[in-house]
Amino acid sequence: MSQSKSKSSSQSRSASKKDSSKVHKLALRGSSKVVNEFFEYSINTILFQRGVYPAEDFTAVKKYGLTMMVTADDQVKAYIKKIISQLKEWMYGGKISKLVVVITSKETGEHVERWQFDVQIFGKSSKGSSSKKSGDQENAQAETSEPPTDKTTEEIQAEIQSIFRQITASVTFLPMLDGNCTFNVLVYADADSDVPLEWGDSDAKEIKNGEKVQLRSFSTSNHRVDTLVSYNVHRLAD
């Protein structure tokens, strides 16, 4: 809907302006697809690397020049597919500012890890956004910034590879997850986003007195994604 609105607002412009606008929209759509796929593989990688589900519940696929593990469990697959499908709409509309994966202990209900992916859309005006889904009430700011110089697909892939290697290596400093755990995905979307009925508001599910580690980022011509993991440092002493 947002793309059709911007299209109609530029109808009075010259043909060359229209063509340029169309190219930009195609570039934004392609960039959104890259970010969306990154989120899908990030969720799967976190679930596998952190042992939220047994290793035998995953299968290996090739992506980004790496061997990636994705869930083979039908219920988990369906849940992730539902999230990514809705995320796709919001991404194409430029309405996402953050995606968070929270790992929670089933026994205690304590949030033990929080993986946060901040999304910056280049050229987007700063405005408040509230979360939709198991999302948060918290407002987020989408900063306006100049886009980077054009990157090749190989350069973007190399940056994404570095992030996944860091997620894999995170087992060296993250405390072991004890007992059974579950996970939630929170999405911060603009307040004017259309939200499916099954998505509800949620608190931020922050880690109390948690330690934070900033991981690498990647960027396209339209988006920048920064990665941060928070964890319960007290479990190191247990």
TrEMBL record:
Xref: Pfam families: HORMA (PF02301)
Q: Which UniProt keywords apply?
A: Cell cycle, Cell division, DNA-binding, Mitosis, Nucleus
Where the protein is mainly located, per its record?
nucleus
Q: Where is this region: Disordered?
A: 1-23, 124-153
Q: Where in the cell is it found?
A: Nucleus
What Gene Ontology cellular component terms go with this record? cytoplasm; kinetochore; mitotic checkpoint complex; nucleoplasm
Which GO-annotated molecular functions does the record name? DNA binding
HORMA domain residues? 29-229
Q: Where is the composition biased (Low complexity)?
A: 1-14
Compositional bias of kind Polar residues: 137-147
Gene3D superfamilies with a match to the protein in the record: HORMA domain
Q: Which GO terms describe its biological process?
A: cell division; mitotic spindle assembly checkpoint signaling
Q: Which family does it belong to?
A: Belongs to the MAD2 family.
Under the heading PANTHER family, the entry gives: MITOTIC SPINDLE ASSEMBLY CHECKPOINT PROTEIN MAD2, MITOTIC SPINDLE ASSEMBLY CHECKPOINT PROTEIN MAD2A
Protein name as it appears in the record: DNA-binding protein
